[in-house]
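Why do we care about 3D structure at all? Because function follows from shape, and shape follows, mostly, from sequence. That is the central idea of this module. The next example makes it concrete: a single protein chain, its amino acid sequence, and then its structure expressed as tokens.
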Amino acid sequence: MTTSDTLPATAAVDTQPVTQQAIEANLRAIRARIDQACRQTGREPADVRLLPVSKTKGNDILRLAYAAGCRELGENKVQEARRKAEDLADLTDLRWSVIGHLQTNKAKYVARFAHEFQALDNLRVAEALDRRLQMAGRALDVFVQINSSGEAQKFGLPPEDAAAFIHQLPQFSALRVRGLMTLAIFSAQTERVRECFVRMRNLREQLRQEAPAGVSVEQLSMGMSGDFETAIAEGATVVRVGQAIFGPRNLPDSHYWPGSAGSG
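And the structure:
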């Protein structure tokens, strides 16, 4: 590792006691809730993918999650995700999804270890990722991040800019566009949260008619521990669940999601 590749210090990870049995029980409970939410809206549970979010959790807990059946994990911070991917490289079938904002100078890391990137919202990052992936002979599944709540502090494209953006993406052949991702507004009012999910569902319908060849918008990544059932009712195909699986975190969510009051 060269000096320029040295990782900056990351926040301390959460190593509070967690057992494999507890993770297994939580996974069963979440999947049962997913099944019920799907049945209530006439959907097939198999059409909703559960992405466990392991940010702040130590390697020992991640190994327990693997033993409990997790074969993919979502991380927000690139440095933290990269370190974990290196430390757990012996788990060869474990896939890593980067779900947080990415700076162009970190694209080289994501191109090396990630299997999925869910926060694409500008062409500079698309170009940097594509260039690094081409060099590595790899491809990457990506989701376009949409700011469905309209909050200024959040990353993501305004919905009205999505069509123009996705029309630029076929030039990046190493990026496999799979769908859209959003963070709904953090609110105790379910209807305010639902509005964000409805906006995403409608946007997907619009983009289905406008997407260029090679670009898919079928997947909708939306919904976390506190709102994934509402997201499923409005068409989510990926739900990102952390605390309901792994328990509360030591760090505030604002460390990972700008302007957030809760996540995962």
